[in-house]
């Protein structure tokens, strides 16, 4: 049952009915702002870490305000609590408690004061707030010990007896917990790590166990000489905590802890993730401890998501009291006798021995059935949390399934805003497509990502690296980022400069005012916001759907590893056949999901696993005319154990082979196959690199948007610049949407047919752009063909002007009005600026290393003839982080005969941040992948002054202090013995001025 019993009586439920903010579908009635200035609703947010509820409220308020001023849309509030019960990454008992956690626990009165402060500040500053369900990763809350809504486990015991002698006695482990099942199986063969059981010998003998745990099993003459194992399993609580008991002897403390007198103070327990009962525990605690009438009202006003992180808790075997009933109902047989095969599913400590059967698949089909059942049970948990969140006037977001043995694709639609992450997905675009396919089919407005976490990179991740992860995510249809992360800026016990640092200096990043670059964050945050504005607009359109059925996603790996589809411009996503039950999973006019992705074909590879529902739907789709491609032939694998259904599924597939829209093809050359069938991409590419595209269709405003990304992973700037053409399936008037400056300009070089628009483009490595098509705009004169590479232009509704940089050749251009214009050579070349004055503002700690609410700043000035990294200018700069102020002068005195009328400035790639001022006029933010801009309007005859301000990460600056840095009483060297690697800071590429001549051509 989806609904929680307490929801009906939830606080202020009567007023929730008319509350806004629970519509999770595309095209919502929501204030997006504009492309130039997106609203907080579509801006990225920061994961905001508070280690406990003792934070200074003034600092807290200023942190939230500073995020808004920097261009963020708000925060995701997370009580870190030293990473809970895990000893990974400096968590658990690895750092001593610095405050009284019996007083400052999650949901305590001080926590309520913090929450109230954050919500009030958010309201005043038009920001939105997400809330972790609980401390650490949000998987649990304070709860009475042994509550039935807590996470369960199976305690397993076994003993061996002679099959010919039988067994009479007490079952192993009797009294360890609630008896779940007793199974026997006879050994066929065994090694030190694996035991093979005769499948035919497996027996569920649970009903034979007496009330005192006694069991009698008769001897077997047919199995004379064999050994039989009796397995007994007991239902127990996992006792996995999200926050520890502060008074536990295993917990180190730097200050005394008050006695624990209520369960609220006794840490937090992970709840049952396979039952609505787990959601009930979370909802009950929030109602009791957190949701006062005032906070409830503020949550509805500025709240956005209740949220849960990726599931990283462990048990021996995932279980819940209703699993056996659900398994029998949905799989058609009892799970009991197969439990020995399932032990170890939870990743916790178990026996070193694995049990399998002598079936052809070693019993894997039964494991798949168990994993599918877990998937269905987890969906009920997610549904319940979604319903509860909606009852409060907000939505529910979660990092769905991955890390666990379930079908991730099946459960993605069960939350309002499914979230993935850059770290766990290894920045893999194919992985994002797996996650996004079901979300887009379900019409979810938001596909979120926890972005920017990098291992062993605390204080070292550059903005260019961060945006690289964003761009790859965008290419996989992710359209919302929660930036990892922003620690509270206040002082904390036994914590040195630069401030409280989560994960004991292991993971990036620690954003905020401690970073020299924070004052410049608005440049890239506005870029992210504008991309999110576009990619949350309209409906995504995708060329190809891949069938993908898996019941375990403990890691995310590439499914389709050929590059032929990208090379040809195809976009694709993955769907589990479970997703075919969604309302929009139908075929119309030979298109699958016409109101969603509008897939042009469905691909089912020969190694895929079939399901009953999936094949039934597939047959329907085939008869409706959808092109279905079977690379390598028809699949015969079946997901789970059901021989009758498996045989029928294979037979049903054979029954559609003769349809003209069903194609059995080679497993190689899928793109060529699609082209031969006239199934063409919406954006076909002809380029000398790898360009990804993502299409959003805004039917209401007659616009299409296409995100284009040049993937140059691992290549240098000089070798990664690529060019070519993209042919878009649109005939609207094309525009460039510059996410850095917010400018929207007409594209002036393109050619149109009756169905397509072809545009030549040049992109730097890892550069992305947005192309928009407006079907209501009127076309103006433009360039259709040219013998030169991509031409910069300046145009208006009345004229078209080419900005002609150095070119020794004459060029002809053909215009859309039928005219041909010849351009004479441009002889004035570019020149490199030299003789720089560089002042470096070094950021270091205050004299008191434990005062983290400020920085010392010291200046050094250098005269340099050319641009090189700071650490090469002077050895004194090797361990310096901060802000660099560059200034140089150059003469601008073009001769009248050259007809030079302006110039571009080109800084090449920027590692972190850069702002440019020409003669006192600040340029709009520059694209840091290729920082190039027209500065013609700012130039003056004679001497011109150029100023460039850059910033750095804190990594180099920490090197000097590494051995004494600590956070919450734990030294940085405890997790990271070596200081950060020395990074190259500053302007590194030559800064060039490229003069141009204006040639009016229309």
Structure description:
Mean pLDDT is 95; it is low at 1-20. This protein is 20% helix and 28% strand. The radius of gyration is 31 Å and the shape is globular. β31 (690-698) and β32 form a beta hairpin. α2 packs parallel to α3 and α11 (463-475) packs parallel to α12. The strands form 13 sheets. It has an eight-stranded parallel beta barrel, surrounded by six helices. The protein folds into five domains: 5-147 and 246-315 and 371-535, Glycosidases (TIM Barrel); 152-239 and 335-363, no CATH class; 556-667, no CATH class; 683-823, Immunoglobulin-like (Sandwich), CATH 2.60.40; 831-1000, Galactose-binding domain-like (Jelly Rolls). It has 20 helices and 55 strands. With 1002 residues, it is α+β, with helices and mostly antiparallel strands. The longest helix is centred in the middle third of the chain and has 28 residues, at 364-391.
* CATH fold category name of the largest domain: TIM Barrel
CATH architecture classification of the largest domain: Alpha-Beta Barrel
Distance between the termini: 68 Å
Tertiary shape: globular
Query: Poorly predicted ranges (pLDDT <50, ≥5 residues)?
Result: 1-20
CATH class of the largest domain: Alpha Beta
Strand arrangement in the largest pleated sheet: 1-2-3-14-16-17-18-19
Largest β-sheet summary: 8 strands, parallel, barrel
Number of domains: 5
Q: How large is the count of helical segments?
A: 20
The CATH superfamily of the largest domain is: Glycosidases
Structural class: alpha+beta
What is the overall pLDDT average?
95
Radius of gyration: 31 Å
Strand content: 25-35%
Helix content estimate = 10-25%
DSSP strand tally: 55
Signal peptide: 1-19
Organism: Penicillium malachiteum
Protein name: Secreted protein
InterPro entries: Galactose-bd-like_sf (IPR008979), Ulvan_degrading_GH (IPR053161)
């Amino acid at each position: 049952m989806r609904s929680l019993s307490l929801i009906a009586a939830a606080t202020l439920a009567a007023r929730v009915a008319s509350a806004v903010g629970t519509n999770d579908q595309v095209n919502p009635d929501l204030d997006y702002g504009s492309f130039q200035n997106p609203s907080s609703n579509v801006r990225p947010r920061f994961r905001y870490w508070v280690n406990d509820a003792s934070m200074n409220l003034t600092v807290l308020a200023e942190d939230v305000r500073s995020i808004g001023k920097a261009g963020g849309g708000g925060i995701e509030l997370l009580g870190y609590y030293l990473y809970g019960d895990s000893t990974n990454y400096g968590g658990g008992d690895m750092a001593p408690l610095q405050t009284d956690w019996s007083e400052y626990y999650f949901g305590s009165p001080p926590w309520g004061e913090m929450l109230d402060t954050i919500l009030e500040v958010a309201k005043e500053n038009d920001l939105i707030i997400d809330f972790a369900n609980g401390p650490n990763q949000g998987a649990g809350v304070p709860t009475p010990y042994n509550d039935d809504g807590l996470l369960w486990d199976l305690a397993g015991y076994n003993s061996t007896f002679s099959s010919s002698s039988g067994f009479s006695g007490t079952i192993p482990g009797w009294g360890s917990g609630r008896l779940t099942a007793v199974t026997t199986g006879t050994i066929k063969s065994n090694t030190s790590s694996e035991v093979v059981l005769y499948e035919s010998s497996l027996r569920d003998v649970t009903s034979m166990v007496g009330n005192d745990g006694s069991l009698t099993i008769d001897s077997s003459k047919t199995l004379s000489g064999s050994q039989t194992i009796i397995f007994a399993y007991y239902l127990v609580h996992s006792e996995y905590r999200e926050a520890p008991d502060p008074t536990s002897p295993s917990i180190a403390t730097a200050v005394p802890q008050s006695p624990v007198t209520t369960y609220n103070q006794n840490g937090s327990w992970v709840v049952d993730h396979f039952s609505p009962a787990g959601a009930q525990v979370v909802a009950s605690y929030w109602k009791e401890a957190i949701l006062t009438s005032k906070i409830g009202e503020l949550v509805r006003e500025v709240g956005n998501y209740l949220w849960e992180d990726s599931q990283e808790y462990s048990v021996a075997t995932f279980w819940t009291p209703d699993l056996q009933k659900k398994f029998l109902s949905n799989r058609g047989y009892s799970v009991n006798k197969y439990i020995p095969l399932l032990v170890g599913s939870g990743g916790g400590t178990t026996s070193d021995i694995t049990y399998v059967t002598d079936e052809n698949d070693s019993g894997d089909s039964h494991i798949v059935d168990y994993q599918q059942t877990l998937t269905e049970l987890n969906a009920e948990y997610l549904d319940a949390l979604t319903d509860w969140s909606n009852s409060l006037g907000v939505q529910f977001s979660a990092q769905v399934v991955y890390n666990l043995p379930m079908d991730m694709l099946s459960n993605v639609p069960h939350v309002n805003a499914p979230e993935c992450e850059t770290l766990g997905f290894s920045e893999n675009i194919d992985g994002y497509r797996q996650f996004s396919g079901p979300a887009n089919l379900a019409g979810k407005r938001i596909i979120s990502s926890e972005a920017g976490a990098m291992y062993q990179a605390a204080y070292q991740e550059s903005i260019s690296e961060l945006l690289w992860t964003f761009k790859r995510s965008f290419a996989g249809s992710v359209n919302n980022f929660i930036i990892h992360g922003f620690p509270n800026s206040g002082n904390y016990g036994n914590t040195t400069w630069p401030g409280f640092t989560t994960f004991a200096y292991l993971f990036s990043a620690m954003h905020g005012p401690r970073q020299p670059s924070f004052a410049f964050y608005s440049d890239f945050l506005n870029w992210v916001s504008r991309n999110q504005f576009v990619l949350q607009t309209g409906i995504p359109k995708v060329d190809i759907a891949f069938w993908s059925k898996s019941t375990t996603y403990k890691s995310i790996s590439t499914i389709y590893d050929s590059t032929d589809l990208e090379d040809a411009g195809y976009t694709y996503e993955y769907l589990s056949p479970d997703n075919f039950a969604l309302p929009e999973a139908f075929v119309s006019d030979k298109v699958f999901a016409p109101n969603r992705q509008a897939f042009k074909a469905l691909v089912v590879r020969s190694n895929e696993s079939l399901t009953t529902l999936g094949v039934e739907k597939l047959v329907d789709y085939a008869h409706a005319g959808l092109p279905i491609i079977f690379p390598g032939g028809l699949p015969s694998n079946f997901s789970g154990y059901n021989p009758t259904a498996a045989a029928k599924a294979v037979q049903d597939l054979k029954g559609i082979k003769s349809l003209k829209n069903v194609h059995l093809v080679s497993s190689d050359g899928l793109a060529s196959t699609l082209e031969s069938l006239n199934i063409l991409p919406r954006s076909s590419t002809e380029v000398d690199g790898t360009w990804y595209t993502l299409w959003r269709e805004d039917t209401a405003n007659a616009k299409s948007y296409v995100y284009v990304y040049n993937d140059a992973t691992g290549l240098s700037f000089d070798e990664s610049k690529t060019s070519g053409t993209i042919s878009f399936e649109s005939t609207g008037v094309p525009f460039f949407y510059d996410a850095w400056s917010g400018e929207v300009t007409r594209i002036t070089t393109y050619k149109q047919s009756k169905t397509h628009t072809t545009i030549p483009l040049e992109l730097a490595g890892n550069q992305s752009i947005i192309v928009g098509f407006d079907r209501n705009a009127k076309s103006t004169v433009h360039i259709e063909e040219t013998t030169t590479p991509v031409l910069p232009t300046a145009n208006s509704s009345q004229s078209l002007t080419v900005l002609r940089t150095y070119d020794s050749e004459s060029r002809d251009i053909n215009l859309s009005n039928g005219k041909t214009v010849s351009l004479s050579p441009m002889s004035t070349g570019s020149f490199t600026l030299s003789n720089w004055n560089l002042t470096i503002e070094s950021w270091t700690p205050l004299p008191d290393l434990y005062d983290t609410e400020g920085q010392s700043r010291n200046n050094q000035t250098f005269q340099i003839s050319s641009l090189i990294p700071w650490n090469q200018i002077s050895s004194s700069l090797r361990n310096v982080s901060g802000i660099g102020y560059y200034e140089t002068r150059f003469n601008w005195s073009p001769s009248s005969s050259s007809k030079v009328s302006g110039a571009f400035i080109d800084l090449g790639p920027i590692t972190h941040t850069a702002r440019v001022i020409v003669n006192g006029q600040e340029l709009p933010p520059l694209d840091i992948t290729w920082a190039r801009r027209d500065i013609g309007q700012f130039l003056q005859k004679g001497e011109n002054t150029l100023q460039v301000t850059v910033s750095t990460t804190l990594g180099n600056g920490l090197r000097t202090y590494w051995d004494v840095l600590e956070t919450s009483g734990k030294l940085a060297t405890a997790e990271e013995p070596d200081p950060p690697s020395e990074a190259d800071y500053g302007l590194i590429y030559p800064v060039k001025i490229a003069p141009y001549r204006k040639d009016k051509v229309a």
